Amino acid sequence: MSLKYSNKINKIRSLALILVFVGIIIMYLGLFFQTSPLFMTLFMIIGFLCIVGSTIVYFWIGMLSTKSVKVICPTCGKETKVLGRVDACMFCDEALTLDKNLEGEAFDENYNKK
Ligand SMILES: [Zn+2]
């Protein structure tokens, strides 16, 4: 388990990207089986299914994005999307929370300074 917290939407997006590449690689490998139409078709279908899968994942990201909350990151000042109670900033991986009970004391102190 990694200690580094990263943004959930970013994680899913990289998963979709990996699926596209895996699909292309599998379809490419299918070209080595040109002598066997059965294997070539099989590789093409598996590769195609990976690409279809990534399209579904992208669609899923779109649905999740509508459920996420847009916030301005206090660390880098950019607008990021928070999914669930706690999530990380998409740009600087700063841990963010929407739940007041989970906010650290350090954050409260900074907030009350001015
Ligand atoms: Zn940030």
UniProtKB/TrEMBL annotation:
GO-annotated biological processes: proteolysis
Pfam families on file: DUF2614 (PF11023)
Regions crossing the membrane: 12-33, 39-61
InterPro entries named among the record's database cross-references: UPF0295
Source superkingdom: Bacteria
Keywords: Cell membrane, Hydrolase, Membrane, Protease, Transmembrane, Transmembrane helix
Single GO MF descriptor: peptidase activity
NCBIfam families membership: PRK02935.1
Name of this chain's protein: Zn-dependent protease with chaperone function
Organism: Texcoconibacillus texcoconensis
